[in-house]
Design a protein that fits this description.
Layout lengths: L10 H4 L9 H26 L1 H42 L5 H11 L2 H46 L9 H14 L2 H29 L2 H30 L1 H15 L1 H9 L3 H53 L5 H42 L23 E9 L6 E10 L4 E5 L6 H8 L7 E6 L2 E2 L5 H6 L1 E4 L10 H6 L9 H11 L2 H4 L23 H14 L4 E5 L7 H14 L4 E5 L11 E6 L2 E6 L1 H7 L2 H15 L1
Parallel strand pairs: 3-8, 3-9, 6-7, 7-8
Antiparallel strand pairs: 1-2, 1-4, 4-5, 9-10
């Protein structure tokens, strides 16, 4: 049922390349369709975050497109007015007094008007740039948070089986690595491109008056740079996607060297240099191919830039020649040279923005791919059943087999047994026998590869998942250690109940956790771990385990499942907990996993597992009388305790 699905390529890779010339239009149509579907997805993400950001970007875009032509015109008129004022001053400096000369110049030349307009223009440009930076910064944070929330929400609803598959982590890493900043980057590039086009078209119209060939030459010579950007943008995307494993390995090695929980072992065994060496080797391998792409792309850009610069220089020489021929005054020279500069920079901006948009949409495909992952653990009927609450439930396994995703080895092999309502069952077996896997199947974190599990006579897959999970009070052997307060760590056992102080204290007493909690600086309000708080308290593994048991006592569950709940406790503390469990599980169906077989002696039923199969089943007395596998395990362990 499970297994790694085939790796899906980016949409552009799924489109078969044309083999004949007549197939090219259809190929281009499919590429554009794929591009625009991603593009729509990006706009939708920003719109979902807040439509205001799109309108603000559009406003800035229009202003940014119009302002350059206005600024060039104002600058040209200012220079021309200064030139005219200078000419008048030279003509009348020996004829008129200074006061009358100034009056005459200001009457015939609007130099002060253009100085004022230049000041207004400069202020407007500064305000526009500040507004643009503000919109981009705020929208970037909001959109990034929106995407992270979507990724977290999607992960919340995914099957636990997905977390066993390397492909899931590849998709998760690809989705989160780029997607948080790409949407705003793409929209910013889009609006920059539009504003550049507005300015460029305005300046092109002005340049056509001078020479219709000038803008055409600039655009034609910009095409090679655009082609290179598109080709290498796609190559960089594909390289990053194919080497997700390398980046995840580097992140893993980095965590090993900085994680406090493993720092002691790393230090004692002197593993730091070994792990650091693995980090460096992985980076070297990853960077080798990336470096080649960067060098090749920039080599092309340098060659194209030299050719482009030569063409631009020729166009500036042409404009200067018009001035020398007397065909153009200083104001027009300023305007046309500014127009030429603006068209050159505009073409470059459009090429860069287009390449950024294209490459960005490819990376956004990672997020789209991640969102396409659908859970398989869901009700198999149109109208899911609700589980009857606050009763003792019956659980039946019928010929259940199970293999973990990506593996053909059967961890559970044709297992059949029944847990009667209100019965206490202990699962026994050596490590790797399949005990924890049975619990994961029982709680429907996984579905069997074959066979069926019945809850109260109904296929467990026919129940509403949320209602199903509510009936289980489970402590796993790898229980959670939450960097929050003590009371939160307990109340997580039943969040629907909320924090009820009296019941939290009662649960702590029943689990034996109250002994150390009442000695903490702020008792139940004490933050745990120093991950976030300087005054946080670090607990021992045994204390953490008592907190996890307190969660079970706090939960309002019908079925208690305890996977090695006392593994980190001493024998006395363990006996106290089991005495409390007898009260907690009274009238409830309960399942225990424990390597300490003394806890199995009072159980209604003991199921002995070996290599994923049930090899014995019965009460403690029945199994001891059989002198089988359970008898051997129990007597061996008892003998060791007596000798000790």
């Amino acid at each position: 049922m499970y297994g790694p699905p085939p790796l899906r390529k980016a949409p552009s890779d799924n489109i078969e390349k044309p083999k004949k010339l007549k197939e090219v239009p259809r190929y281009i149509k499919k590429l554009l369709g794929s591009f625009f579907s991603r593009y729509y997805f990006i706009f939708k993400l920003v719109w979902e975050t807040n439509p205001f950001y799109l309108f603000a970007m559009a406003f800035v875009t229009i202003c940014s497109g119009v302002f350059p032509i206005v600024g060039a015109y104002v600058t040209a008129q200012l220079l021309q007015s200064i030139a005219d004022a200078y000419r008048l001053a030279m003509d009348f400096k020996d004829v008129l007094p200074v006061a009358e000369l100034v009056q005459k110049i200001s009457g015939e030349v609007d130099v002060f008007l253009w100085i004022g307009l230049q000041l207004v223009y400069s202020i407007a440009i500064s305000l526009l740039n500040s507004l643009n930076s503000t919109v981009i910064a705020i929208s970037g944070e909001k959109v990034a948070n929106h995407i992270k929330t979507k990724v977290i929400t999607k992960s919340k609803d995914m099957d636990i089986a997905q977390f066993d598959m390397p492909e899931f982590y590849e998709k998760l890493e690809n989705a989160t690595r780029e997607a948080t900043f790409r949407p705003v980057q793409i929209l910013n590039a889009t609006f920059n491109m539009i504003s550049s086009l507005i300015s460029m078209i305005s300046f092109i119209i002005a340049l056509i008056v001078l020479s219709p060939w000038a803008p055409l030459i600039i655009i034609v010579f910009a095409l090679p740079a655009a082609i290179v950007k598109f080709i290498y943008g796609r190559k960089n995307f594909l390289y990053s996607k194919r080497h997700s494993k390398d980046r995840r390995q580097m992140e893993y090695y980095s965590v090993l060297l900085t994680n406090k929980d493993i720092a002691k072992e790393v230090r004692i065994f002197n593993l730091s240099d070994t792990i650091l060496d693995k980090f460096k080797k992985t980076f070297k391998k990853y960077f080798k191919g990336l470096k080649k792409l960067i060098l090749r792309e920039n080599a092309w850009h340098i060659a194209i830039a030299i050719a482009h610069a030569a063409v631009n220089a020729g166009l500036f020489v042409f404009i200067a020649y018009q001035v020398f021929q007397g065909k153009m005054d200083i104001g027009n020279y300023s305007f046309y040279s500014g127009a030429l500069t603006s068209v050159i920079s505009g073409v470059s901006a459009v090429v860069t923005a287009t390449a950024t948009i294209y490459q960005g949409t490819l990376f956004i495909d990672n997020l789209i791919e991640f969102n396409k992952i659908e859970p398989k653990i869901k009700p198999n009927v149109d109208e899911p059943l609700s589980v009857e609450r606050h009763i003792a439930h019956k659980i039946e396994f019928k010929d259940v087999c199970f293999s973990y995703p990506g593996s053909e080895r059967q961890v559970i092999n044709n297992v059949s047994f029944t847990l009667e309502p209100g019965e206490t069952t202990v699962l026994v077996g050596l490590n790797g026998a399949g005990k924890t896997t049975l619990i994961k199947l029982m709680t429907r974190l996984y579905d069997p590869t074959s066979g069926v599990i019945l809850l109260d006579g109904e296929d467990i897959r026919s129940y509403d998942l949320n209602k199903l999970y509510e009936i289980y009070g489970t402590i796993f052997q790898d229980f959670g250690k939450y960097a929050m307060t003590v009371e939160e760590n307990i109340y997580f056992g039943d969040i629907d109940k909320g924090i009820i102080d009296e019941e939290i204290i009662k649960a702590a007493k029943e689990s034996g956790a109250s002994d150390f909690i009442e000695k903490l600086p702020n008792t139940y309000k004490t933050p745990l771990t120093k991950l976030f708080e300087y005054d946080g308290t670090e607990l021992s593994i045994g204390q953490w385990q008592k907190l996890s048991i307190a969660r079970a006592f706090y939960s309002d569950s019908d079925i208690m499942i305890l996977d090695e709940p006392t593994a980190s406790l001493d024998a006395m503390a363990e006996q106290q907990i089991f005495n409390q469990f007898e009260k907690l599980t009274k009238g409830k169906t309960s399942v225990f996993v424990s390597h300490r077989l003394s806890s199995a002696t009072t159980a209604d039923k003991i199921i002995v597992l070996e290599y994923g199969k049930v090899i014995e089943e019965g009460s403690h007395k029945e199994l001891m009388d059989k002198h089988g596998a359970y008898y051997e395990l129990f007597t061996t362990q008892a003998k060791r305790y007596v000798e000790n």
